[in-house]
Design goal:
With 353 residues, this protein is mainly β. The protein is built from 1 helix and 19 strands.
Length: 353
């Protein structure tokens, strides 16, 4: 048929069995058989290694076929690949969940095992060292009995750690893998901040005078994240009119009352609440709610709402690049939580009982 590619069956070739066949190692081992397991027997897969298994064939392996001090593919043919189904820590390095090429520099007393984001490679020729995301030191144990085939496996240390084990000839190398790595966040684009009322209550430990100390008793506090304009139009575009907004970024904005208050005509007991807003062009509605452990307002349930209050919109005294909040005392019982961003400012009245 004209224009249609046809494959001549006589030109089709299938590869013979490889002298270094591929294999796969799983941790936990039984996770490879989950489809045979009952629900209570299933194990979540954590690590999977795809590798080739060369044989000794009476050769001297380490220090011979695999020279000391040189990079080795940890197998044969294609680069060995490891897939982590969760973040791990190797050699003090945080490694995200994903698939990596793994190879090692071999020494008589230890191996240095490298994990690279460079995939689809054969062996170790011309590897890009800049793609290495982590390296870990594997201790070496000399064995009495030789293992003919290169083998990868795992040895559980405890629920949080496992050895990735490499064995061939009379050498066994143990690479520790931390399954519960510390997660340290980088700098946030919307840094967290807090405002407290009265302002001096943040520094009570610096006050010696008893009268001043009493006046600095904390009444309320807001913890919130501070997104920036970055050339964007905020209200009406980034923050839609008539739609609930977390009143910040990232985690839910939290307000703590250290004594009972009146909020929009509703008596509110002391405690910590989530605070969100529904902005409008001329008026905002502020809502207190009980959903304090959340990321923003996704899937918010109105049944968690405690109280609401409305406040008029005014112009900010200057353009505020970052979302900003402050408390403004009106008298001994009344205070405004002032929210400003872009060219907009809103005063939320709160009355202390």
């Amino acid at each position: 048929m004209s224009g249609v590619f046809q494959l001549n069956a006589q030109e089709l070739e299938f590869a013979p069995l490889d002298v270094s066949p591929m294999d796969m190692a799983h941790y936990p081992r039984t996770s490879a058989f989950n489809n045979y397991m009952s629900e209570d027997q299933k194990k979540d897969p954590m690590i999977k290694v795809l590798y080739c298994r060369p044989n000794m064939k009476e050769r001297v392996i380490f220090g011979g076929l695999v020279p000391y001090g040189e990079l080795w593919r940890l197998g044969a043919n294609e680069g060995t690949e490891v897939s982590f189904m969760q973040p791990v820590e190797i050699g003090g390095n945080f490694v995200n969940a994903g698939t990596y090429t793994v190879n090692a520099t071999i020494h008589p007393s230890h191996w240095v095992v490298h994990f690279s984001s460079e995939l689809g490679v054969a062996g170790t020729a011309n590897l890009d060292a800049s793609k290495i995301v982590a390296s870990g030191k594997a201790k070496v144990k000399n064995l009495d009995d030789a293992r003919e085939e290169f083998t990868v496996g795992f040895q559980k240390i405890n629920d949080g750690k496992v050895y990735m084990v490499f064995e061939w000839e009379r050498t066994r190398a143990y690479l520790p893998v931390n399954l519960n790595p510390a997660f340290l966040a980088g700098s946030d684009a919307s840094p967290m901040d807090l405002v407290q009322y009265p302002g001096m209550s943040r520094f009570r430990n610096f006050i010696d005078n008893e009268e001043e100390l009493a006046a600095a008793t904390p009444k309320m506090r807001v913890v919130y994240s501070r997104p920036q304009m970055k050339g964007r139009t905020i209200f009406g575009e980034l923050v839609k009119y008539g739609e609930p907004w977390r009143l910040g970024a990232n985690e839910t904005t939290l307000i703590t009352f250290y004594e009972d208050v009146m909020f929009g005509g509703t008596e509110v007991r002391r405690g910590t609440y989530g605070l969100m807003a529904v902005p409008g062009e001329t008026e905002w509605e502020f809502v207190l709610h009980k959903n304090v452990v959340s990321w923003g307002i996704a899937n918010h349930n109105d049944e968690d709402n405690v109280a609401s209050a409305k406040a008029a919109v005014s112009a900010a005294p200057e353009t505020m690049e970052a979302l900003s909040m402050a408390f403004d005392k009106q008298d001994d019982k009344n205070v405004h939580l002032v929210v400003a961003w872009d060219k907009t400012m809103v005063r939320l009245p709160i009355t202390m009982k």
